[in-house]
Here is the input.
Amino acid sequence: MNKISAILFVFSSFCFAQQNQDIEKPVRNLFIGMKNADPVLLKSVFTENAIMQTITKDGMVKSDSVQDFILSISKFSAGDLEEKIIIDAIHTDGNLASVFTPYSFYLKGKFSHCGANSFQLVKQNDEWKIQYIIDTRRKENCKEIK
Here is the structure.
C-alpha cells in the first residue's frame, strides 16, 4: 500500500508542477518580452481586455493601458529593461490563477526600484493569459533580486 501511495504522490506532484509551469509561462514571458523589447511577445501574454494598475506611494491606484505599456517598452533597446522576479505564490481554482511576485527593476543595468506584482490569470483556449496586474513601486527598503 505504501508503494501505491508513493506513486500517487509522485504523479500528483508532477501534475501540480506542470500546471504551475503553464501558469508561470505568461508571467515569465512578460519579463522576457520587456528585456528583449519585444512587442509581439508582450502582446501574446495578455487577454484582449487586460487591465494594468500601479499603487502609488500615497496609496492611489493609477491605471495604464496595456497598449501604451507595450508601445513604451518597444521604444527601448533589447537589454535596457530587466525585471527580476521571484514567484512567491501561485493559487488556482479552475480557469483562474493568482501569482504573486516580488521584483527588482533595472534600467540599463542599474537598479531603479523594487516592489511586488500581483497577477490574475485566466485560462482561455487551453492557454493561460494575464487578465489583471497590479504592482507597487518603491526605492526604499528594497532587497535586490539577483
About this structure: The CA atoms of residues 31 and 110 lie 17 Å apart.
